Amino acid sequence: MPYVNIKVTQEGGPNGTGPSVEEKAQLVAGVSDLLETVLGKDPATTFVVIDEVPLDNWGIRGKRVSVIRAEQS
Amino acid sequence: MPYVNIKVTQEGGPNGTGPSVEEKAQLVAGVSDLLETVLGKDPATTFVVIDEVPLDNWGIRGKRVSVIRAEQS
Amino acid sequence: MPYVNIKVTQEGGPNGTGPSVEEKAQLVAGVSDLLETVLGKDPATTFVVIDEVPLDNWGIRGKRVSVIRAEQS
Amino acid sequence: MPYVNIKVTQEGGPNGTGPSVEEKAQLVAGVSDLLETVLGKDPATTFVVIDEVPLDNWGIRGKRVSVIRAEQS
Amino acid sequence: MPYVNIKVTQEGGPNGTGPSVEEKAQLVAGVSDLLETVLGKDPATTFVVIDEVPLDNWGIRGKRVSVIRAEQS
Amino acid sequence: MPYVNIKVTQEGGPNGTGPSVEEKAQLVAGVSDLLETVLGKDPATTFVVIDEVPLDNWGIRGKRVSVIRAEQS
C-alpha cells in the first residue's frame, strides 16, 4: 500500500517545461514495478503522485535553480 | 496544533475539474471538527492544506489516472 | 483516490504521549467518511497516514512545543 | 543533505499574489545559511522547495483563508 | 534534482517489520536509475527518502491496516 | 501562516545521532525569523516540523547515506 511522491523541476521534456505525458507514464509504471519487485507490493494499492516545481521555487546551493540554469547557459 | 494535507485528483466537483470552493470549505471544516472531537485539538491552530493533482500526475495500478478514466468511460 | 496526511504532536491521549489506537481508528474512519460524503470518494482508495511528531521537533511562535508546554504548566 | 519544504499562501508580495522572485531567492539563501550555520550542512546538497497554496485551499480555524481575509478587510 | 519520498507500512521484509537494509538499497538504486533513464536526471542530485509507517498509523477503506491484516489472517 | 518541514539525516549533533534539542530550537527560531523578515509572516502561525531520517532510509547518488558515510571514513 505504498505512497510515492516524486518532485521534479519544470524543465526538460519535449518542450523544456517538464516531463511529457509519456514520461510521466514511465515514472508511474517504473515505480510501481520497483515496489512490486523489491517488496512484493500490489500495484493496485500503490499511489504515485508527481509534483512539477517551477525553477524559481526550487533551491540548491543557496540559489534558485532558475539562477543556476542561467549561469550554466 | 495539527497539520493536515489532503491530496485529491482534479476531477469531480461542479465542473469536473476538482472540488468546488464550497466543497473545500466542507473539507476544511470537517477535518478541523474531527481533530477537535477526537483529540481535543483547538481549531485555531489546525492547518488544512488541499492539493489538487492533475490526472496525468497521479498513478495507481501502474497507470496514470487519466488513462484509467479513459478506459472506464 | 485521495491521500491524507495528518501530523500531530506526541501529546494527549490516554498516556499523554499521543493518540491512542482507538483515536487513530476514529481519525482514519472520520477522514474517509468526510471524503466520501463531500467528494464522493470511494474509501477503498482513500489512504490516511498519521505522523506523530516529538514535542522538540514541532515549532510554533519561533519556539519548540516542548518549551511552550513547559511555560504553560 | 537536508530537504526543506516551505508552504505559504498565495498572498502578499509585490502583487498580492505571493512571494516575488526576489523574496523566494531570500528564502532559499536564508534556509541554506541556517542549516549550514546550525548543523554544518553543505549548501551543495540542501534542497529548498517552495509551494504556493491558493487561499481557498488553505484552512485554519475551520475556515478557508480566503474567507478569513474577507472577514478581516 | 529530483526528490522522491517513498512511504511504506512496517510489514514484510525479513522480520515482518518492514524493508530490510538490502531492500532499501534496491529502492534507492531503482528510483535513481528510473529518474536517470526516463528524465535524464543526474543521480548525484536525486534524493530518496523512505518513511516506514506503523500499521496503526496507516488507514485504507476507513480502517487501520493493523485491523485489515488481523481480519485477513 | 506558513508550514515548513525540515528533513535531516540522523547524524551530526553532540552524539552523532542528529540535531541536539538546542540545535532544533535554533532551526525553529531561525526559520520563523526568516519568514517574518522576508515575507512579514506572523510567527504565531508559522509551523516548523523537523523530521530526522535514519541513514539507511536516505539515498543520494543511488546509494544509502549509510553506505556513503562508510566509504568516506
UniProtKB/TrEMBL annotation, chains A, B, C, D, E, F:
InterPro entries referenced in this protein's UniProt entry, alphabetically: 4-OT, 4-OT-like_dom, Tautomerase/MIF_sf
Molecular function in Gene Ontology: isomerase activity
4-oxalocrotonate tautomerase-like domain residues are: 2-66
What EC designation does it have? 5.3.2.-
Keywords in alphabetical order? Isomerase
Offer one Pfam family short name for this entry. Tautomerase
According to the record, the residues making up region (Disordered) are: 1-20
Residue intervals passing through the bilayer:
none
UniProt similarity note:
Belongs to the 4-oxalocrotonate tautomerase family.
Q: What is this protein called?
A: Tautomerase
